[in-house]
Amino acid sequence: MSPGLILKYLADLPRSVKAAFLICIDAVILGFSMLLAFAVRFDPASLENQFWILSKGVWVLIAVQMLALLISGLYRSVLRHAGSELLVLLLRSVLLGAGLFALLDLMLEEYQLPRSIIVMSAAFAFLGLLSTRLMIRWVVRIHVVEPQHPEKLKRVAIYGAGSAGLQLYESLRQEGTYQITAFVDDNPKLQGGVVRGISIISFSALQALHAKNPLDWVLLALPGVKHGERKNILNNIRLLKVGVRVLPTADQLMRGTANASQLQEVEIADLLGRDEIAQDEELLHQDIKGRNILVTGAGGSIGSELCRVILRDSPKILVLLELNELALYQAELTFSRLSSIPIVPCLGSVHNSALVKHLLMEHEIQTVYHSAAYKHVPLVEENPLEGLRNNALGTKALVEKCIEAEVDAFVLISTDKAVRPTNVMGASKRIAEMIVQDTARRFPERKLGIVRFGNVLDSSGSVVPLFREQIKNRQAITVTHPDITRYFMSIGEAARLVIQAGAMSNNGEVFLLDMGQPVRIRDLALQMIELSGLVPEKDIPLQFTGLRPGEKLYEELLIDPAQSQPTRHPRIYSSEEPLPESEVLQKEIQLLSEAISKRDLNSALESMKRLVPEYNPENGQ
Question: CA-to-CA distance for 563 and 577, rounded, in angstroms?
């Protein structure tokens, strides 16, 4: 059997067996440290006269020091992962043992030892115990942790030579599957330095290094850097045509969606380069802090992110209303781990008026965020009656019960597709907006508002998860049209802006979120392929499938300077949307409801067109 296999067998032994083995080694080291201290302190002739004291002292030292090592928890430490904390723990243990030994020595006057013996034996014990552990860790790392074939190691460079980069280095080194070739940093003061024996180089030097001996990955360890700066760095790394993995951003850590040492794919928000501006804390807390909150569609992408933000603002209670059983289960599980605030999961639909009324009254709900909706354009286009029933009539049922229960604040989460809609989903959301506007007009003492925004990155129905799955499986990336563009916003920023906009609601205003610049979907797909270390068209082709029913080539500009006004928040605007007379609107909605109940598609669509005259399916392109 080879030494490597023997060592692997020993490394796989139970922790209790390995701890017992280490205790035996430590006992021998402690005994030798006392012998060595006597040998240094006394000359050979007088050493014989000290034999009685020595023999007693050795056993006392071993007993006392072993007790100190056990008390300090030294044997709970995993050697292969031990770092600088091992040095501190060992020093503390030896000093504790030396102190106990000195105290005992003073009490036993007959066998009292010179103080120099106690000091020297402690020093020798510390060096011996430390050397043994360093040697064991080195042997295990070389022969057990690290693979036998260096050519199998992934060659990586760590971008960022700060504390996050050093922590990542230690973590990767312990895994033993990476060959860390360099640290990369844009700070000229750090370039040319050496950390842990690894050079810190500039990006241009990284290009030369990669050209000479190609890297497998560049690992981005810059959690505190803003999206705009990260976008510039990623654009540079794309030139290398190498895969990229990143440490979580500060926003992800705050949201609790990642841990500090978890390498992951590039966050798409980094590719947009859009930095979130400072939040208005007063607006964030206004309708949440100390209040009873209800979120509909709480298991969906936007709903669940709203819940995360709400929990950080200390509500009194959070009620989750969700139709999907699995989504509700996962949401409750996640949120209960994030916060100790009472969470009430409720399985049901906003159409169930009795259930909604019970929830509002039973839990004395003060603020409602209505995010439950069918949002997938092609599916709603195929199922228009259900789309209209859920999005429009569901909102009507909910807002009526909120008025009846005297809820303080109601916020409807809407969409940019409600602007001059070309599909049923957009038209159904515009009708929902009109219902809320009309309710606010009829009940001016109530606080109702509407928040409209575009696509959310990484939401369940967006292209980003689809592209990721296709890249992972080396399938062709499917894009509907080479020139199709969309406005995007990170899910965290969207949720925070929704809450801040809702807090400014007064009388049925429509609030618009600044979505930044439109993104061409084709370019987004190419960036995702390249940052996965693959070559577009060579490794993964792009396949253009054609626009789907009701799909626009270009989304409407959400904020029209001629029709919108700024608010106290620089990324939130308000808009006065036209609204029919209340009697006319309610009569038409009643006709829509009757048509849906009878499954009369033609009548329902005619009613929808009368309610939303700007609806034009021919404007998709």
Answer: 9
Is residue 22's pLDDT more than 60? yes
Q: Do domains 150-272 and 281-456+489-515+557-620 have the same CATH topology?
A: yes
Residue 550 identity: G
Structure tokens at 114: 């010179």
By the 10 Å C-beta count (0-12 exposed, 13-18 middle, 19+ buried), 152 is classed as exposed
Exposed / middle / buried, residue 333 (Cβ in 10 Å: 0-12, 13-18, 19+): exposed
CATH number, domain 281-456+489-515+557-620 = 3.40.50.720
The C-alpha atoms of residue 524 and residue 308 are separated, in whole angstroms, by 27
> Mean per-residue pLDDT for 90-116?
75
**Is the four-CA dihedral 579, 581, 586, 588 of positive or negative sign?**
negative
Name the residue ranges covered by the structural domains of the chain. 3-145, 150-272, 281-456+489-515+557-620
pTM: 0.71
Contact 366, 407 (CB under 8 A): yes
196: left (phi over 0), alpha (psi -120 to 50) or beta: left
**CB of 500 closer than 8 Å to CB of 409:** no
Q: Which helix (H) or strand (E) holds 166?
A: helix 163-175
Cα gap 590→607, rounded to integer Å? 9
Contact 508, 450 (CB under 8 A): yes
Give me the sign of the Cα torsion angle 141, 145, 151, 157: negative
Cα distance between the two ends of the chain: 72
Stretch among 309-318, 392-401, 484-493 having the lowest mean pLDDT: 484-493
Q: How many CA atoms, within 13 angstroms, populate the side-chain half-sphere of residue 496? A: 20
HSE (side-chain half, CA atoms, 13 Å) at 271:
23
What is the residue type of 604? A
Fold of the domain built from segment(s) 150-272: Rossmann fold (3.40.50)
Q: How far apart are CA 411 and CA 508, in angstroms?
A: 9
- Tens-place pLDDT, residues 35-74: 788 777 766 655 555 555 556 666 777 788 788 878 877 7
For residue 2, the Cα-to-chain-centroid distance in whole angstroms is 44
Name the band, by pLDDT with cuts 50, 70 and 90, for residue 110. low
Q: Which of 386, 387, 303, 401 is nearest to 352 (CA)?
A: 401
**pLDDT above 50: residue 260:** no
pLDDT, tens only, 536-557: 888 899 999 998 887 888 876 5
Q: Are 119 and 101 within 8 A, CB to CB?
A: no
Give the integer Cα–Cα distance in Å for 91 and 126. Answer: 7
**3-state SS assignment for residue 68:** helix
Largest CA distance in the chain: 116
471 and 528 Cβ atoms separated by less than 8 Å: yes
